[in-house]
Amino acid sequence: MSDQLKIKLSIANRVYPLTINPKQEEGLRLATKKIEAMIGQFEQNYSVRDKQDVLAMCALQFAAQVEQKSIDKEYVNEEVQEKLEALNDLLSQHI
């Protein structure tokens, strides 16, 4: 347990104490900054009265980004597979 790090992150004016692996700190702090920036954008662009609504919109935005990356990766993998098969067919014809 001595290799754990205790940090505090502030999101939407609430402090969250965490005990983490030191390797996670940078990612968590960057994620916190992104969340805070997104909260600011939503509050500026929309008349949102409740922080819960803003946080739900942030969660949806981040989840959508993750899902889109997964979809894009799957598409790229399919495209690479098709090109490899075409290349393999060309090589087979010349051997």
Could you please describe the fold and organization of this structure?
The protein is α+β, with helices and mostly antiparallel strands and 95 residues long. 68% of the residues lie in helices and 15% in strands. It has two helices and two strands; from the N terminus they run E-E-H-H. It has a two-stranded antiparallel ribbon. A hairpin with a 2-residue loop joins strand 1 and strand 2. Helix 1 packs across helix 2. The longest helix has 44 residues. Keywords: Cell cycle, Cell division. One of its GO terms (biological process) is cell division. It holds the Pfam family ZapA.
Structure keywords:
68% helix; 95 residues; single chain; 2 helices; two-stranded antiparallel ribbon; 15% strand; alpha+beta
What is the molecular shape? elongated
The termini sit apart by: 60 Å
Strand content: 5-15%
Specify the helix fraction band. 55-70%
Q: Which strand order do you get reading across the main beta sheet?
A: 1-2
Oligomer: single chain
**Major sheet: size, sense and barrel closure?**
2 strands, antiparallel
Mean pLDDT: 91
SSE order, one letter for each helix or strand: EEHH
User: What is the radius of gyration computed over CA atoms, rounded to a whole number of angstroms?
Assistant: 22 Å
Give me the secondary-structure category: alpha+beta
Number of helical stretches of at least 4 residues: 2
Low-confidence stretches: none
Report the strand count.
Answer: 2
Keywords: Cell cycle, Cell division
Pfam families: ZapA (PF05164)
Organism: Winogradskyella pulchriflava
Protein name: Cell division protein ZapA
